[in-house]
């Protein structure tokens, strides 16, 4: 199946190569979106666990232990989702040339936001280590605000990719 090349003026061989290239790129894009969405789902939920950890009453060992276990597992899973999301994104950028060339400043801005997301992910790992060491003393209100950052970063990425403002 070839999408978008029905009326292509190229000869049959060139049309087939273009179709294969486009079809493969669409699969790479699809999986990139799936992994990014899953990665963000983890980044949305992990700070919610931090909110609950910040609210645990002193002496409530079972609740704290359960929340720490949930946070560790979620961080591990989220990290596993982030790797293919980043690799597929780099493939689209460097192999397929998405966002390369003149008029693609939006890609530079998006890559800046991606770096912020990676930094946020890293910060979540550091916060979890502090919770495990019982060295985190921020309030649940702080973590509720902290939880809003990935939403803003996702909105920025989607707007940059869809609107391509630069």
List keywords for this structure.
166 residues; 5 helices; 78% helix
Structure in words:
This protein is mainly α and 166 residues long. The chain has one domain (32-163). It is built from 5 helices and no strands. The protein has helices at residues 12-55, 61-95, 105-132, 140-146, 149-163. Helix 1 (12-55) runs parallel beside helix 3 and helix 1 packs antiparallel against helix 4. The chain is elongated, with a radius of gyration of 21 Å. The protein starts with 11 loop residues before the first helix and ends with a helix. The mean pLDDT is 90.
Q: Major β-sheet, in short?
A: none
What is the H/E string? HHHHH
Domains counted in the coordinates: how many?
A: 1
Report the sheet-strand fraction: under 5%
Distance between the termini: 33 Å
In DSSP terms, counting alpha (H) and pi (I) runs of 4 or more, how many helices? 5
Describe the structure in brief:
The chain has 166 residues and is an all-alpha fold.
Walk me through the topology.
Layout: H1 12-55, H2 61-95, H3 105-132, H4 140-146, H5 149-163
Helix pairs in contact: 1-2, 1-3, 1-4, 2-3, 3-5
């Amino acid at each position: 199946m070839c999408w978008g090349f029905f009326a292509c003026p190229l000869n049959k061989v060139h049309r087939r190569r273009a179709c294969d290239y486009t079809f493969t790129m669409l699969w790479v894009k699809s999986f990139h979106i799936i992994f990014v969405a899953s990665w963000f789902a983890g980044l949305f939920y992990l700070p919610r666990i931090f909110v609950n950890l910040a609210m645990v009453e002193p002496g409530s060992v079972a609740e704290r232990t359960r929340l720490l276990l949930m946070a560790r597992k979620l961080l591990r899973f989220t990290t596993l989702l982030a790797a293919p999301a980043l690799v597929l994104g780099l493939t689209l950028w460097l192999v397929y040339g998405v966002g390369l060339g003149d008029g693609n400043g939006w890609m530079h801005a998006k890559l800046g936001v991606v770096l912020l997301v990676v930094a946020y992910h890293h910060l979540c790992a550091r916060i979890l280590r502090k919770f495990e060491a019982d060295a985190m003393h921020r309030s649940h209100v702080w973590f509720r605000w902290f939880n809003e950052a990935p939403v803003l970063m996702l909105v920025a990425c989607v707007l940059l990719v869809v609107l391509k403002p630069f």
